[in-house]
Amino acid sequence: MTKLLKDVAVVIPVFNEEKLIGECINEWLNVLDSVNLNYEILIIDDGSSDATISIVERYGDNQNVQLIIKQNEGHGPTILAGYKRAVGIAEWVFQADSDNEISPNQFSALWSRRQGQDAVIAWRQGRDQTTVRRLVTFFARVTTKVLFRCHLRDVNIPFRLIRSETLAILLEKIPSDTFAPNIALSGALSLMNYQVEECPVIFNERIVGESSLSNLGAVRKGGRALLELIKISKVFP
Hints:
By secondary structure, this protein is of the alpha/beta class.
């Protein structure tokens, strides 16, 4: 694979995050500058209707921040759109959410473990989950264990670092409209025997806005995710 120009591309999907996105970008700029990396931050906007886009556009003079605006399709397809752009930019791809539940300051813990690995995936310590979140987490772990022989602690966590060469191979077999692509990627990494390191991180509940997994709608979406994961598991050797 041709050597890429950047060390890491950080993929951050956003939707109506006007209250958090400015702080999120500032924190990532500070962290990535502090570890002296050649990087790009990709803000993938999923059709926001608030001031999110205008806030990100204020960083237009910073070549390390790129805004990609797409039509609203949901969180999963937005992550995948960012991944597909990122694999052509940097040697490593890091995905994070904009909700401040996991501080960017913990990035270096994953980055320092990347040598000899295809991926470094975090797991959330001390997580006080709601009943709905516990159900979703249990469902995700059991599903990936059965379908992919995956034993990762936190299969759906957004805080993950994946080698671009590895990610590009996996993306070829994951449909662009997949509801929960990070679960599928966790499973595929395990099923294909890639080298994966786990790293604990500190988790804090978001203080602004509402999580997409805070109501029973998340449980209803579980059936769709299960069907998708069954199909995806069959296309990997």
